[in-house]
Design a protein that fits this description.
Blueprint: H1 2-57, H2 69-72, E1 75-79, E2 82-87, E3 91-96, E4 102-106, E5 130-136, E6 144-148, E7 154-157
Antiparallel strand pairs: 1-2, 2-3, 4-5, 5-6, 6-7
Length: about 170
Amino acid sequence: MRGIMLLELLVVLSILGIVCAAALPAARTFYARAAVEYEAMHLIAEIRRVQALSRVTAMELYMLEGRRSWKRDPRLEIYTDGYALHRPFDGTVRVHEPLPLVRFEQETAHGKRVAFDRNGDIAWEWSRNMKIRVYAVGYEQDALRVVIDQAARIRLHRGATNVDEEE
């Protein structure tokens, strides 16, 4: 009787092992896609916040007359492992660290900060036509791209490796 129970337990454990071995890669793929989507949307929201703040801080204000307008603009700096929002006068407000496995890569305008002028247009001396790839390590084929074009439109692009192929 004990031998049959032990055998049944081993069969059940082996079945669970097979099910887990099949489900774990699917769960990891699902996590990678969801994490990349979340981080890309979070980045777009942060870029739009910088754009909105730029409209306010770039205006000539009597209390900030001694400062040049480009020093008053908030800027977003993209790193591989996150991004930082710099407030006017070179202070850092917030550093965002992405979910595990998620990384950022500036495909164009390498190392330039995301900045906008007083009309919400892209600031020429800081950034132009920027593409930021958001991907999960090991799942680069499922990357999403945040695109900021010359007219300062911010959009999320899925699919093709080259955004200009479809335009």
